[in-house]
Design a protein that fits this description.
CATH class: Alpha Beta
Helix content: 25-40%
Oligomer: single chain
Shape: globular
Catalytic activity: malonyl-[ACP] + acetyl-CoA + H(+) = 3-oxobutanoyl-[ACP] + CO2 + CoA
GO molecular function, one term: beta-ketoacyl-acyl-carrier-protein synthase III activity
Keywords: Acyltransferase, Cytoplasm, Fatty acid biosynthesis, Fatty acid metabolism, Lipid biosynthesis, Lipid metabolism, Multifunctional enzyme, Transferase
Domain Beta-ketoacyl-[acyl-carrier-protein] synthase III N-terminal: 106-182
Number of helices: 11
GO biological process, one term: fatty acid biosynthetic process
Length: 357
């Protein structure tokens, strides 16, 4: 039987930080208010495009796997903040990493996008259609933020993470998965003034009008992710105590803690980095996966459970069996271009535009 082993991993974290104290100069908030409600201390603001973030993460993952760009058969980019819609942003990443001839496509399932993409690419490898794929979650969520709205302005950040999948006879990689979508109340998390249903000639669109009903999102996120995890455990014929690491979507610390409690997982098994990056949507899980390896949480043959919930309202859960290797074959030298501005300086034009409405 063919499996899709994870052989490479990489991340791209923009250098410019935006702390809670920084945000208190932009909207009516403070460090205590944000930490108490979200667990976030700071987030990153990108000075480059989603495509460049994705390219760095993808190249790091390819180097980690000891491969070259033209070894890759598929580039799949999970994002809801593409650099371009037409052509798709994955095609630019494919070009940048030298994956000549590889298929390239974007996938938008919001915060669940990386797990959706992981499922899709794994299925292609297991079917024998392809042998090697790079899966990226990359977002510039700060591009969507309306800095005049406190409830959503404090939540989001930018970044990217990626993994390389390779066909293998070793029983590893994504072994069980459940994806779905709860459309009964999809309007509780969406951007109202964006898309082809808007008359773009009637008036300037202005800053994104991001609607976010926090309490309702909280309830549905905990329910959706917990039930998806239960389904995956049943598929894999596993008990919760057999799981070595839980990597949940990093949307809100209280959501993470609620899922942890509902699944009865101990603190040392839960990967949490939301305090450093905020919600980077489709990028949260691959970034957290990379850091779990770096921090020694993921060991050879670790059993990993991951879950996500996003706009749509999409949800997903995955059981991943890690392989034998936890160190890169080649250390990557690729890095972002330098940034000479602070996070506050990067968002200043957007803040001015939001406050002038």
């Amino acid at each position: 039987m063919i499996y899709a082993n994870i052989t490479g991993w990489g991340k791209c974290i923009p250098p410019a930080k935006l702390t809670n104290d920084d945000l208190s100069t932009v909207v009516d908030t403070n460090d205590e208010w944000i930490k108490t409600r979200t667990g976030i201390s700071e987030r990153r603001v990108s000075h480059v495009s989603t495509a460049e973030l994705a390219t760095i993460a993808a190249q790091q993952a390819i180097d980690c796997a000891g491969l070259k760009g033209d070894d890759i058969d598929l580039v799949m980019l999970a994002t809801c903040t593409p650099t371009t819609l037409v052509a798709n942003t994955a095609s630019l990443v494919q070009k940048n990493i030298g994956a000549t001839g590889a298929a390239a496509c974007d996938m938008n399932a919001a915060c669940s996008g990386f797990l959706y993409a992981l499922q899709a690419a794994t299925a292609q490898i297991k079917s024998g259609m392809i042998k090697k794929a790079v899966i990226v979650g990359a977002e510039r969520m700060t591009w969507h933020v309306n800095w005049a709205k406190r409830d959503s302005a404090v939540l989001f950040g930018d970044g990217a993470g990626a993994v390389v999948l390779e066909a293998s006879e070793e029983k590893s990689g994504l072994l069980a998965s459940k994806t779905g979508c709860d459309t009964s109340n999809r309007d509780i998390l969406h951007i109202t003034n964006f898309g082809t249903e808007i008359d773009k000639y009637e008036a300037p669109l202005g800053p994104s009008n991001l609607l976010f009903e926090g309490r309702e999102v909280f309830k549905r996120a905990v329910k959706g992710m917990s039930e998806a995890c239960d389904d995956v455990l049943n598929q894999a014929n596993l008990n919760l105590d057999e799981i070595d690491v839980l990597i949940p979507h990093q949307a809100n610390l209280r959501i993470i803690q609620a899922i942890q409690q509902r699944l009865s997982v101990s603190d040392e098994k839960v990967m949490v980095n939301i305090q450093n990056y905020g919600n980077t949507s489709a990028a949260t899980i691959p970034i957290a996966l990379c850091e779990a390896v770096e921090q020694g949480m993921i060991k050879p043959n670790s059993k990993i459970m991951s879950a996500a919930f996003g706009a749509g309202l999409t949800w997903a859960a995955s059981y991943i069996q890690w392989g034998d290797r936890i160190t890169p074959i080649n250390k990557s030298s690729v890095q972002l271009s330098e940034c000479e501005k602070t996070g506050l300086e990067l968002i200043a034009p957007a803040v001015k535009a939001c406050n002038n409405l």
